[in-house]
Amino acid sequence: MNLNIKSLPEIAKAGIQVPEYDVKKMQEETVENPIWIHFGAGNIFRGYIARLQDDLLDKGLASKGIIACDTFDDEIIQKIYIPNDNLTLLATLAANKPTSYRVVGSVAQGLVCHQDYKDYKTMEKYFSNPSLQMVSFTITEKGYALKDIKGEYTPLVQDDFANGPSNVKHAMSLVCSLLLCRYKAGKYPIAIVSMDNCSHNGEKLMDSVLTVAKKWLEKGYVDDGFISYLTDETKVSFPWSMIDKITPRPAKEVEEEIEKLGFTNMSPITTARHTYIAPFVNSEVSEYLVIEDKFPNGRPCLEKAGVYFTTRETVNKVETMKVTTCLNPLHTALAVSGCLLGYTSIASEMENEDLVKLIKGIGSEGMKVVVDPGIISPQKFLDEVLYVRLPNKAIPDTPQRIATDTSQKVPVRYGETIKAYLASKELNEGDLKFIPLAIATWCRYLLALNDELQPFELSPDPMTPVLTKIVEPIKESMKYNGELKEILSNTTIFGTDISKLELGKKVEEYFISMLEKDGVKKTIHEVVNA
């Protein structure tokens, strides 16, 4: 069997769930008058967000699907989407249960969103259509960033400022240019929805788009009316959201199972941009999507597919609960310690009593400053993470994947809790021990030497060149002479200068004890059992 529309009857006969609607008809109707465009065509979109619309289509609650586009990696569209008629085979991995399979057919079209591709003219047409209700994003937090580590606009962004809407490269500039098309077509309303796993994601997206627009205003490329359009929430809204579903890299075990089912041409590829992707997506069962209900042109009834629609305040509470306490900081601690200790599976780390004590301690420290959002219980969420999700051996997730872009994650995953302790009258940042231990482990990870003092490859991170240069003298001598202070004092990384805090001193103390062979294992054991 091949994964395409023609093969759907054959796939159904093999006992696999396929769309109950006419996929070809849905695709034709969607491209005629689209309602939803999504930027970021990777696994979290294909394995979760697209499946939500698939649910609505199956239930007869929607007639149109999603236009997927990618600004970063054209091979995702050309080698994964187009050859498979935009279908995805979703493998859901539950603990101690057989894997369930489903074909997701809600993606009507896959496009490459660059101005030098013919697809861009199609994107301009879609953005100019009054039918378009929402544009969503899963481009990772760094996709919104206009500035580098020094707080300066990157050369690419500076070029976009100078060249104007007709000659742009950065994702945020492309979005701004497309919104300009919508403005010129009739000032039609629309919701611009970040679904990325980062704090205040809607605000980040709005700030970046407005920054580009205002720079173009200064240079005469746009008029004041365009700025008024972007800042009028009855015309353009930027809802906040919180998303949570683990969708790891395609696993070899899943690929082999799929081949046994009779599928062909399902092997993953590695693109020139280093994206590892396959026609299938493997994911966990647990999932959460909470969105601020602010859609000036209407929206799909995604609440009937399990999405929570609520206020910005509630979204913020849920997101803070998850990103700063109940999942993400635990994941990061397991990621960097796992790389150092030679683990290749998050689930296997959960068999290490010391690492479990570490992440339970991080959760406990964060729980003291978490505000209950009301719609989801923080303690139940944390318990599900600790006792169901992370130990799930069916999820082929690796520390190496989770360690990607750690420098971009630390400000929220640990920095927000630290700031909350500093602002509290009842709590003392000097009492924290598990969070500084996690930070020290990340600093030790930056040496790119495992606990046996053997070299290993760091996961991709935009700050790697800067950070590794700072710790290079330590790596050469395995002695510490205060080099970490340059990292600990960086407010971009931690949200505050922690080098001056009692917590910062603990980070240095733990780090020093990790420099000897087996020092990571020994230090974690001593701290979590103290």
Question: How would you sum up the global shape?
Answer: globular
How would a textbook summarize the main sheet? 6 strands, parallel
Please give the count of helices: 24
Give the tally of β-strands. Answer: 14
Bin the strand percentage.
5-15%
Into which percent range does the helicity of residues fall? 40-55%
Widest beta sheet: strand line-up: 5-2-1-6-7-8
Task: List the uncertain runs.
Answer: none
What would the average pLDDT be, to the nearest integer? 96
Query: Mind telling me the C-alpha Rg?
Result: 23 Å
Question: Structural class given helices, strands, pairing?
Answer: alpha/beta
GO molecular function: mannitol-1-phosphate 5-dehydrogenase activity
Domain Mannitol dehydrogenase C-terminal: 315-506
Catalytic activity: D-mannitol 1-phosphate + NAD(+) = beta-D-fructose 6-phosphate + NADH + H(+)
Domain Mannitol dehydrogenase N-terminal: 37-303
